[in-house]
Design goal:
Elements (H helix, E strand, L loop, with lengths): L2 H12 L13 H11 L3 H17 L3 H17 L3 H18 L3 H21 L3 H18 L2 H17 L3 H17 L3 H17 L3 H116 L6 H21 L7 E4 H10 L10 E5 L4 E4 L1 H18 L5 E10 L2 E8 L29 H11 L3 E4 L7 E8 L1
Parallel strand pairs: 2-4
Antiparallel strand pairs: 1-3, 4-5, 5-7, 6-7
Helix pairs in contact: 1-8, 1-10, 2-3, 3-4, 4-5, 4-6, 5-6, 6-7, 6-8, 7-8, 8-9, 10-11, 11-12, 12-15, 14-15
């Protein structure tokens, strides 16, 4: 019998069962190795399979790694490098032991390695060693509990028996394989195996084996035909039962569909009514929105006119106020109030962008701090903390804001206290000026109110309350903001944030 052809055919039918039902994406190394095999580059393919085995092992993909390692082994002994092949199989076994925790998966992986070792002994014609490996494979197959592994074991047993002239044992194993495939309704595969077995027996001029194989084939064929007819009849009966159930289901669903159609009609009517009501509401909303937009536009126009009117009145009052005695507190307060009103109106109505000027920060801060040295109480410490750098700022607005904050600090900081002016770079386009003092501080409930103009009627001789609102408006014009630091509890800290 032509054993090589028989073994090849069995490999096609049974070894394919060892591949999982789910395809795993192959690594680039494995793809390169398979491409090299197609081109006949055995050495390159072997090298890439070994690298793929190591790569998969490092990633914890042990099954894929073992499969690549086994393929590299086959390419070793294909060129009679048996020592290297055995060494690689030992490495694969060690990798499985070191990385796989499950005893079931470990047995299935060791089976692949042991099978490759058995095939090497087959090529070396060492039947005792082959039998020893088959016994190990049987133990591993039983431990794995995998039917595809057990089927593969039967195939390798058949190869062993036929290869070493034990035809009776080979036939017994072959029948067991045929029975399992028949039970799984893989009739076509069994049919091809039988036909190939008969053809091989004829080529080897073994009349007894031809007759025995042909007899077994006819017996199997008869039983299989009966099974096929039974399957076909069962399938037809099932189809008839399914059709009857489908007809019954369709009949019973007609009433339900009618009820659904009636319900949908009612729902459509309700939706139509809702759409009509919604349309009325939407029209009222659109009209209301238009009215609100008009009201807002008129209010904005009135605010602009009011600001312009106040600014004009303030400008016209200036010549008259200049003629009065500004040594009188009331006159002085009135003049400052008129100036503040005009400044606030100009800031609110101005739309021109501010121009920035590159400024040496330490010198700028020291100059501002010097302006209040003669205004602070005794033993008050003045501190400037600014890095030696320049920054783009609007000097007029920043000077006005910081001077106002420092003058307030000088007024409210008691003797022995501290006033500090700091500068901090917060990013490529963000920076801060911080003015802190150790005075009584501003109550938390009043911190936001200090930035609101005209919040309450005041005695102008004690201040008009427009200083901080003007400072915040200037900060906003510079694309920044002015706030009180809520985390500072030893007095008051104002934070001027600027963005360039």
């Amino acid at each position: 019998m032509n054993k090589k052809v028989f073994v090849l055919l069995l490999s096609v039918f049974f070894c394919c069962g060892m591949v999982g039902a789910q395809e795993v994406k192959k690594s680039e190394l494995q793809q390169h190795a398979e491409a090299d095999i197609e081109k006949g580059k055995v050495a390159s393919a072997r090298f890439n399979f070994i690298r793929a085995f190591e790569d998969y092992a490092n990633k914890g993909q042990i099954k894929q790694g073992v499969e690549c390692g086994v393929k590299a082994t086959a390419l070793y002994y294909k060129e009679n490098y048996y020592k290297e092949a055995f060494d690689l199989l030992r490495r694969i076994d060690q990798t499985i032991i070191a990385n796989e925790k499950s005893a079931v998966k470990k047995a299935a992986l060791h089976y692949l390695v042991t099978k490759e070792r058995m095939q090497m002994y087959m090529k070396l014609h060492r039947p005792s060693s082959v039998k020893e490996q088959l016994d190990i494979m049987e133990s591993q197959a039983n431990t794995s509990g995998d039917e595809s592994v057990k089927n593969d074991l039967l195939y390798n047993k058949a190869v062993y028996y036929y290869s070493f002239g034990q035809n009776a044992q080979g036939n017994a194993v072959f029948k067991e394989m045929a029975s399992k495939l028949t039970a799984q309704k893989e009739y076509g595969k069994v049919d091809e195996v039988y036909k190939t077995l008969i053809a091989n027996a004829r080529r080897s001029n073994n009349a007894n084996m031809v007759a025995q194989s042909y007899s077994n084939y006819l017996a199997w064929k008869d039983s299989t035909d009966a099974l096929k007819h039974a399957d076909e009849i069962g399938a037809l009966k099932k189809q008839i039962a399914d059709n009857e159930a489908s007809i019954s289901e369709k009949d019973s669903s007609l009433t339900t569909r009618q009820a659904i159609i009636i319900g949908l009609c009612i729902l459509a009517a309700a939706l139509a009514a809702a759409l009509v009501i919604g349309g009325v509401v939407l029209m009222r909303f659109i009209l209301l929105t238009r009215k609100q937009k008009k009201t807002i536009r008129i209010a904005n126009e009135n605010n602009a006119l009011k600001a312009k009117f106040i600014s004009n009145i303030s400008a016209q009052l200036d010549p008259t106020l200049q003629k009065l005695d500004n040594s009188q507190p009331e006159v002085k307060a009135l003049m400052e109030f008129s100036e503040h009103i005009q400044t606030l109106s100009e800031l609110e109505n101005s739309t021109e962008p501010v121009e920035l000027e590159d400024t040496q920060i330490p010198k700028f801060c020291e100059t501002l701090m010097d302006q209040i040295r003669d205004k602070v109480k005794s033993s008050v410490t003045l501190t400037v903390n600014a890095p030696n750098m320049s920054a783009p700022i609007h000097k007029e607005y920043v000077s006005h804001i910081l001077s106002h904050l420092l003058e307030n600090a000088a007024e409210y900081t008691p003797a022995g206290g501290t006033i500090c002016l700091e500068f901090k770079k917060r990013g490529a386009h963000a920076q801060q000026f911080l003015v802190s003092d150790t005075g009584e501080g501003i109550p938390e409930e009043k911190r936001e109110d200090v930035f609101k103009p005209f919040l309450e009627v005041k005695d102008l001789t004690t201040g008009d309350g427009l200083g901080l609102p003007i400072c915040r408006q200037m900060a906003l014009k510079m694309n920044g903001d002015l706030d009180i630091d809520p985390a500072f509890t030893k007095g008051t800290r104002f934070v001027l944030n600027l963005h360039t």
